[in-house]
């Protein structure tokens, strides 16, 4: 389950985002869980022999289909899985491009002035979208060419990606739990679960993400732990040595009002009435 936060990253482009975005996120998780569970249950039930399946390793999915599914139906299922993965990839690229756009708008990336521009024709951050797409392709392609201690770098990259992805969810969830009920966050939005349910699911989410981290660093992916720790050390050095005095962070106070006025003017310039 990933990519379900894509609607949050496109909230500025969404009508009635305060209610439609959280609803879309929750429904995407629910439907993914339902159909994903049915698919996995059907797959497990069709395995002819668990001992033979365990011997297949990474190839167990294709082995099981070769054993029990007719060629025509097998190709159809592969097509469905491919489309699902493609849509998930598009959602992930959408999220990445909007994060690049938002971070650049605050001056946080090299070339921020170009990456923060919105195309008057497509009304989307075209430069940020192409940057995210190209870097994603190059990153995956490059990782297939390298091995670390006998393990494909691509396998390690996948583990690191999962760790960093769920870490990026854990940090705001923890901060949200700490901020709720304070002047920084004194009320929920128009579409919400209520404080009790929010706290419960926030806690369960953190626990599950800790488990994902533990699973993600098990052999042969133990290099993912070293890369994660190394990344934190590198970013700490860059922050304290260079960026701490340059980057002002997200806008606050009067800067927010000025930013909102600039966004409204930009929307009106391309014919948007605002929502």
Structural class: mainly alpha
The helix-strand sequence is HHHHHHHEEHHHH
As a percent range, the share of helical residues equals over 70%
Q: Could you list the spans in which at least 5 consecutive residues all have pLDDT below 50?
A: none
Strand order of the largest sheet: 1-2
Would you tell me the overall average pLDDT?
A: 86
Radius of gyration: 22 Å
Main sheet characteristics: 2 strands, antiparallel
Query: End-to-end span in angstroms?
Result: 30 Å
Strand content: under 5%
Q: Using DSSP, what is the number of strands?
A: 2
Tell the overall outline. globular
How many individual helices? 11
Using brief descriptors, characterize the structure shown:
275 residues; mainly alpha; two-stranded antiparallel ribbon; 11 helices; 1% strand; globular
Polypeptide structure, described:
This protein is mainly α and 275 residues long. It is built from eleven helices and two strands. The protein has a domain at 155-275. Helix content is 71%, strand content 1%. The chain has a two-stranded antiparallel ribbon with strand order 1-2. It is globular, with a radius of gyration of 22 Å. The model has no long low-confidence stretch (mean pLDDT 86).
Quick overview of this protein structure:
The protein has helices spanning 6-9, 17-46, 50-55, 60-68, 71-105, 112-115, 126-143, 153-179, 195-216, 223-246, 254-269; strands spanning 147-148, 151-152.
């Amino acid at each position: 389950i990933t990519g379900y936060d894509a609607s949050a990253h496109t909230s500025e482009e969404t009508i009635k985002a305060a209610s439609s975005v959280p609803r879309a996120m929750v429904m995407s998780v629910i439907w993914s869980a339902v159909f994903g569970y049915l698919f996995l249950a059907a797959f497990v039930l069709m395995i002819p022999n668990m001992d033979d399946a365990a011997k297949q390793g990474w190839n167990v999915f294709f082995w099981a289909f070769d054993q029990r599914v007719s060629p025509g139906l097998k190709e159809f299922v592969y097509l469905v899985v491919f489309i699902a993965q493609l849509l998930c990839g598009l959602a992930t690229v959408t999220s990445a491009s909007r994060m690049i756009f938002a971070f650049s708008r605050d001056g946080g990336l090299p070339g921020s002035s170009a990456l923060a521009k919105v195309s008057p024709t497509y009304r989307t951050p075209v430069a940020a979208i192409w940057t995210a797409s190209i870097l994603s392709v190059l990153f995956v392609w490059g990782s297939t060419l390298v091995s670390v201690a006998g393990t494909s770098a691509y396998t390690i990259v996948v583990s690191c990606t999962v760790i960093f992805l769920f870490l990026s969810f854990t940090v705001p969830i923890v901060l949200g739990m700490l901020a709720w009920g304070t002047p920084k966050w004194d009320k929920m939005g128009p579409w919400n679960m209520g404080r009790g349910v929010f706290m419960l699911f926030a806690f369960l989410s953190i626990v599950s993400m800790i488990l994902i981290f533990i699973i993600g660093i098990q052999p042969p992916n133990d290099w993912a732990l070293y890369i994660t720790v190394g990344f934190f050390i590198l970013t700490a050095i860059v922050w304290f040595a260079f960026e701490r005095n340059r980057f002002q962070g997200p806008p606050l106070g009067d800067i927010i009002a000025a930013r909102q006025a600039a966004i409204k003017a930009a929307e009106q310039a391309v014919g948007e009435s605002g929502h």
